[in-house]
Every structure is written in C-alpha cells, then in structure tokens.
Write a structure and sequence with these properties.
CATH topology of the largest domain in chain B: Rossmann fold
Radius of gyration of chain A: 32 Å
Oligomer: heterodimer
Number of strands of chain A: 2
Number of domains of chain A: 2
CATH topology of the largest domain in chain A: MetI-like fold
CATH architecture of the largest domain in chain A: Orthogonal Bundle
CATH architecture of the largest domain in chain B: 3-Layer(aba) Sandwich
Number of domains of chain B: 2
Largest interface: A-B, 25 and 34 residues
Bound molecules: adenosine-5'-triphosphate, magnesium ion
Strand content of chain B: 35-45%
Structural class of chain A: mainly alpha
Chain lengths: ~425, ~375
C-alpha cells in the first residue's frame, strides 16, 4: 500500500514567483473581513467588560482622595519622618488646603476616606474648619493646635500620612481580615472583627456544593435527554428550559412560598404524618441550596447535553463486544468522552454561583450571605468603593485560580493519555 | 475450502426469526451453519437483515424465536460481553479518548490479562498491522485506512473464537478498499480466523469469502461458494444480484430432467438448464451472463442462434459491451474482448447472437 500511496502523492510543483505576495494579498482581504465581523463585539466587550473590570481592579487600590484634594499636604507628609510633629510648612499648607476643600465637595471625599483611618476624623475636620481663621499672627501650628488638641498628636498626622499616597493596600488587606500594624507590618485584625475570610470560605463552599449537586442531578438527566427518542426528549427539554421563562425573582419567591413553615412542602409532610412540626427549610442554608440548584441546573444540563448528543452509542457497544461489563463500558468509555461537557458545565455553574447575590439574600439566613452581598452592601449602603472593589477583586482572583487549576487538571489528563 | 458435513459447526443459527415492530419479520426462519476457520459473507441489498443477523450473533439484539449456538453454547441469553466475539464496526468505533495502544489494550484489560503479557500481545499485533510507530497517537490522528487496521487489530488481539465485521470497508475509497480486502483475507488465512463479514458490495463478497450467503427480504436466497453462486445461481434474484446478467421473460414449453425448452419474445425458442420447482407451462425468466453470449456465432455450431440488432458500443478498456435488441428487449448486453471485435461493425447492424444450452438458465419468474 505504501507504494500505491506514494504514487498517488502529487509531485511537488515548481516555485512560481510572486505566489507568496498573491497569497498574502488574498489572506489580507480575508483577515480584514474577519476583523470587520468581530469588531462590534470586540468594541462592546471593551466598553462593557474590560473597562469596568479594570476600573474595579483599580478602585481596590485607589487612594487618590487626599492627594487630589490636598496635593501639597500629601507631598510634604510623605517626606515627614513621623517622629515629632510635622514642620510649620506642613501645618500652613494643610490649613490653606483644608480651607480650599470646602468648595467642590473635596471635604466630603477626604472626610470619608480619613474616617476609615479613624472614625472621628470627619468631625475633627469640620470642627477645625468652623473656627479656622483666614489669616493668623501666630504660626499655623499653634493656631491649629489651639483649635483642637488632636492636632498636637502625631497619631492624627500619621493617619493623614497613611491616606496620602496615591495607592493603598488597606482595602485588599481588609478584605482578607488583615491590616497594617503601627510599625507597618501586616497583621490579622481583632478576632471579633474578622468576617471576610469566613465569608470567602462560605462562598466557595456554597458555590462548590451547588455545582456538585447540579452535576450529580444534571448528568443523568442530560444522559436521558441525549438517549431518548426525539419526541420525548423534546418534551423533557421544555421542562428543563421552563425556569428560563420566569424571572429569577419570581422563582426565588416561589421557593419561599413552597418551603416556609406553613408552605406546601411542610403541610404535605405533616398531613402525611412524616413529621411532627414544620421543618426549617427556608431562610437557612437548605433554602439557599434548593433555590440556587434549581436556577443553575439548566446551565449544567445544556453543555452536558450538547456533548452527549454527539457521542455515538456504538462506542459502548464496541466496549461490551470487547468484554467490558455494560457499567464498565459506561464508566470507562462514555463518561470520559463527556468530560469536556462536565468541565464546561461545572465551570459555568461555579462561576455563576460564586457571584450569587439576590437568591441567598432572599432565601438565606444571615450566616448564608455570600461575598456579593457585601459587595452590594459597600456599593449601595456605605459608598465604600474601595472595599467593594477589593472584595470583587478577590472573587475574580479566586475564579481565575480555580479555572487555571481546572484547566491544568484537564490538560494533564490529556497529556498523560497522549 | 471443502467442508465435511460431520464437523460440528462453530456457529449455528437454527430457525431464527426477528421482528422489531411485531408486524414485519426482518429475518425469516434463518438456518445457517458456519464451520471453524470459515470466511462467510452475508451479502444482500440494503435493509435485507444482514446487520440484524450479525447483531443477534454479537448479542446486541435478541432473536424473536429460534436459537443461536456458538460451539456447544446456546447464545440467546448470554450477554454480549461474555460471548468472546470480536467485532469490527462500520465506522470503526475506536475510542476517541484513548491512544491506539490503549484501544488495543482495552479488551485485554477487561479480561484481566497481566500487563506484561497484554503489552506483548499489543506490540505483536501492532507490528503485524505495521502501525508500531503510531501506538501513541489518537485515532483522530490516523488516516481512514490506518483506523481500519487498528479496529481490526482490536477485534483480533484477544484471540476471539469468532470475528464479525459489519461493512468494515464501506468508508474507504476504492483503491484502499481493495488493498484492505486482501489484507483481511491474508489475516484470516494466517491466523485461522472464523469470520462473518457483512457487505452489500458483491465483488467484495466474491473476492474474500469461502462461502457467501445472499440475503433478500430476511431470507437466505442461496448460500454457496463464490464460484457456484456466480455460475449456478439458484434463482433470479441471485442471478441478478451477483455479477451482470441478461434477463428474458419466457414460458416453459417442455421439460426433461434438468433441461427444458423455453419460448420467449415473438416465436423464439431456446434450450436451457431448468431451475428448481419449474414445470412445463410455467412462466420463467431466462438468465444469461453477457460474457457467455457469442457474437456472430454462425461458425461455432451452437444450439441456440438468434438474430439481433446492435444499438450501442460501450468501451471499457479491456473489453467492450454491446447493447443489442433481442426478442423485444433492447437492454441485452454482450461482452466482447476488444481484439475479437470485427472492426467494420457499427450501430444499427443486424448481428447474430448465440449461446450454449449450459450457459442459459430458466429461473423463477420475478
Ligand atoms: N433498531 C431497529 N428498530 C426497528 N427496525 C429496525 C432496527 N434496525 C433495523 N431495523 C429494520 O430492519 C430491517 C433490516 O435492517 P438491517 O439493519 O438488518 O439491514 P441491513 O441488511 O444491514 O441493511 P444495510 O445494508 O443498509 O446495512 C430494515 O428494514 C430496518 O428498517
Ligand atoms: Mg447494515
């Protein structure tokens, strides 16, 4: 056969001059067309995705409030050694810039920022401003110290100094229950103030649990969908897609109605005599799992189904003809071929679950709130963009890390096989 | 291969019937014995039940009634993974997530054969199919012919007592197919395999098989060696399905032991070999191979001579086919070697055609 094949190979043609240039020209046109086709999407992605995310990442380290409102004070304070009180020059520039900050909302911005360093700072600033004279005979340091004794404490100035640089790691640290100590080293915050480490763990546990349940429930269903005759599988598919026809909020509310202590589930169980008193099924972790699995299940089933649909049943037949028990054939031959669907489904569900907010907020208890809840809290309630962004950043990092690990695992498996 | 009838057959279908829908029998009363070491082909048009027979043998379908035996064992209730039958599927069914080597190891792993021995067997068969350097490739990285050989090797590596192949060459181009036909035939001879092969390509069946079972409509029309099938077709279906064939409808005038006198067309008569179950007065279909019809046969002293009109020349390189009109049938073909043709013959000429009694058969009227 080798000779026959060799003969059928076309002879290598001679080089034609100018062919390369021709090819390049032809390719260029095609490339331009391709670019034109993806351009709208690319632009949309940049505007709706890349810019907001970079903005969010930036805000998690952004510390520009003091630097913008009091540029000179900020500059002088960075040169200050922090041992004794700052020099007269700092006092005078500060007094001037504080007075100027009254216009254009600058005072509000630095007040909010400095309150993170010391919760009484805003009051200190407004009190100082109220009696701050336009000019003074004495030195500015004496004037300020006479207005409020706190201006004679180095700690006050140290707080101002910490807020002076253009960037800060305080939000990122705080999002991990860490802070900078007085000597500048990183330390854990007081035990009774720690929240976020636990919230992150909880978020990963809930998202992981939901993903696992979705996989365990979705796999058999997707298999059924892929193997049933078309007419039946179409009907089943409608049931799978039905949740998409109602809004997320309605579905979540429906779960509350069903699961609450006087709800359908509890009354049914009680009339059947299976339980004595109503089970606590909602406003706790159980409710969160119920509602989230229900909402996210289609996102597991659809990628699984599309992969399974493409797997011919002949492979399992082949395996049994080679002596494998049908279960072994399923596990060794069928399941590995679905792995790409499993990967797509779990990643999709996990990434969606990790960012869930409304559902846990409605059907969960206080100890079931996930990271997004705190992101929402900081953006909507306290206007603390730094903390919101820092939490968001870690959420993003966690997702990316998990994705990388997953990618590595899947790739490694393929490498071993190759 | 000459077969002794006393030998216990390896495979025995006994009165097997199969219906899928409870209305139509896809396989009707199948009786078939296959001897050890035999290469038997199931040949037939699409939908005639070949795959169904093979699937019943492999265990993926159960017979509606009747029994299938493999050696002494009744197979009907034995699940497919315990039958120890190698199978080559039409689209190979190589496991896409495994390398060539893993594919070949698979049947050995399911049989709990030790790693060292399994590896040795796989190496041996890989060198036999000349794919040693491809052992670590995925099936998708092989050409069609290479995949075909891997599929074959996988069905053979665990030394099954029987190998089934369902149109294994259907997806290959003509040249490769012919090459693989010979390769499979050689493997069959070298390893002493028993093979049941399914195809709807009659030339493939004739090239490869010891015996061919011609299927139609769920019934074996004839089972015989390729030579007998071609030379002595049992009925009109087989005559038409295997090779080229001219048919002329006629009527039996009189019948002796195994020859008869048949009238056909407008007052033509010929002597012919009589098919089974035909009596004088019956309608019949005369069957003559185009290469057995002689052109301008006056000097040949043949029993049956007729005048015909030449309509068309069809040039085929090594021979010519002449389309003629004989007894009202204008699709009557004659096959002539190129060098035997009189050069001044042209379309529209009156010609004389003739044949011997032994070359024409009166078969059942379809
Ligand atoms: N799973 C099935 N369910 C119902 N009918 C079937 C099934 N498989 C085959 N049939 C029917 O049985 C008949 C024989 O099918 P079979 O596959 O045995 O034919 P075949 O001879 O292998 O044809 P081909 O050469 O086209 O492969 C066909 O009419 C087909 O429609
Ligand atoms: Mg078939």
């Amino acid at each position: 056969m080798t000779s026959a094949l060799a003969m059928s190979q076309p002879a290598i043609s001679e080089k034609v001059p100018g062919l390369k240039a021709q090819l390049r020209r032809a390719e260029r046109l095609r490339k331009l067309k391709a670019i034109a086709l993806v351009a709208p999407l690319a632009i949309f992605l940049v505007i709706a995705f890349v810019i907001p995310i970079s903005n969010m990442l930036w805000r998690s380290v952004d510390n520009s409030e003091v630097m913008q409102v009091m540029p000179e004070t900020a500059r002088l304070l960075t040169e200050w050694d922090g041992k004794d009180l700052p020099s007269e020059a700092v006092f005078s520039v500060f007094a001037q810039e504080l007075r100027d900050s009254r216009t254009g909302g600058g005072l509000g911005r630095i007040g909010r920022r400095l309150n993170y360093e010391d919760p009484t700072f805003r009051t200190l600033l407004t009190q100082t401003l109220r009696t701050l004279p336009a000019t003074t005979e004495k030195t500015w340091s004496e004037t300020l110290q006479s207005i409020h004794p706190r201006w004679s404490e180095t700690d006050t100035w140290l707080a101002l100094q910490r807020a002076a640089p253009a960037t800060t790691d305080r939000y990122l640290l705080a999002a991990l229950d860490l802070q900078r100590g007085s000597d500048g080293s990183i330390e854990r915050i007081d035990e009774n103030q720690r929240v976020y480490q636990q919230v992150f763990v909880r978020t990963l546990v809930i998202a992981g649990g939901v993903t696992l349940i979705c996989l365990l429930m979705g796999f058999p269903l997707a298999y059924l969908l892929a193997t049933l005759p078309t007419s039946q599988s179409n009907l089943l598919m409608i049931f799978v897609l039905l949740p998409f026809w109602t809004s997320l909020l309605v579905r979540t509310a429906a779960w509350i109605v069903l699961l609450q202590s006087g709800g359908l589930v509890n009354t049914t169980l009680m009339t059947l005599g299976l339980i004595e008193s109503p089970l606590q099924l909602v406003f706790n972790r159980i409710g969160v799992f119920f509602a989230m699995v229900h909402i996210l299940l289609p996102f597991m089933i659809l990628p699984l189904y599309s992969v399974m649909k493409g797997i011919s049943p002949v492979y399992q037949r082949a395996a049994t003809s080679l002596g494998a028990h049908p279960f072994a054939a399923f596990w060794q031959i069928y399941v590995p071929q679905t792995l790409s669907g499993v990967a797509a489904g779990t990643i999709l569900v996990f990434i969606m679950a990790i960012g869930y907010y409304i559902t846990p907020a409605l059907v969960g208890g206080p100890s079931d709130q996930m990271v997004s809840y705190f992101v929402a809290y900081y953006t909507n309630t306290t206007n603390n963009w730094g903390m919101a962004a820092a939490l968001g950043t870690f959420l993003l990092i966690a997702t990316l890390l998990l994705y990388l690990v997953y990618h590595k695992l899947v790739n490694q498996k393929q490498l071993i096989r190759n | 291969m000459q077969l002794t009838t006393e030998m216990e057959p390896l495979v025995r279908f006994s009165g097997v019937q199969k219906t899928y829908d409870g209305e139509h029998l896809v396989v009707k009363d199948l009786n078939l014995n296959i001897q050890k070491g035999e290469f038997v082909t199931l040949l037939g048009p699409s939908g005639s039940g070949k795959t169904t027979c093979l699937m019943m043998l492999a265990g993926f379908e159960t017979p509606t009634s009747g029994d299938i035996f493999l050696g002494q064992e009744r197979l009907n209730t034995l699940p497919p993974h315990k039958r120890n039958i190698g199978m080559v599927f039409q689209n190979y069914a190589l496991f896409p997530h495994m390398s060539v080597e893993e594919n070949l190891l698979y049947p050995l792993k399911t049989r709990k054969i030790s790693k060292a021995i399994a590896k040795e067997k796989v190496d041996k068969i890989l060198s036999k199919i000349k794919l040693k350097e491809f052992a670590h490739r995925r099936p998708s990285q092989l050409s069609g012919g290479q995949q075909q050989r891997v599929a074959l090797a996988r069905a053979l590596v665990f030394e099954p007592q029987l190998v089934l192949m369902d149109e294994p060459l259907g997806a290959l181009d003509k040249q490769l197919r012919e090459h693989m036909q010979l390769e499979i035939k050689h493997l069959h001879e070298q390893l002493g395999l028993t093979v049941v092969f399914v195809t709807h390509d009659q030339s493939e069946a004739l090239t490869m098989s010891d015996r061919v079972a011609v299927f139609n409509d769920g019934v074996i029309q004839q089972i015989d060696t390729p030579h007998n099938l071609y030379e002595y077709p049992a009925n009109s279906f087989v005559a038409q399905f295997i090779g080229e064939n001219n048919t002329l409808p006629g009527k039996i005038q009189s019948k002796e032991q195994n020859t008869c006198q048949v009238s056909f067309g407008d007052g033509f008569t010929t002597r012919a070999l009589a098919g089974k179950n035909l009596n004088s007065g019956d309608k019949t279909q005369l069957s003559i191979r185009p290469e057995r019809v002689r052109l301008n046969s006056g000097h040949l002293n043949l029993e049956n001579q007729f005048n015909a009109t030449l309509h068309e020349f069809i040039y085929l390189g090594d021979h010519l086919r002449l389309r003629c009109e004989l007894a009202g049938n204008d699709q009557f073909y004659v096959k002539v070697p190129v060098n035997e043709l009189c050069p001044n013959l042209k379309a529209g000429d009156r010609i004389q055609l003739g044949w011997s009694d032994q070359d024409v058969r009166a078969l059942d009227y379809l």
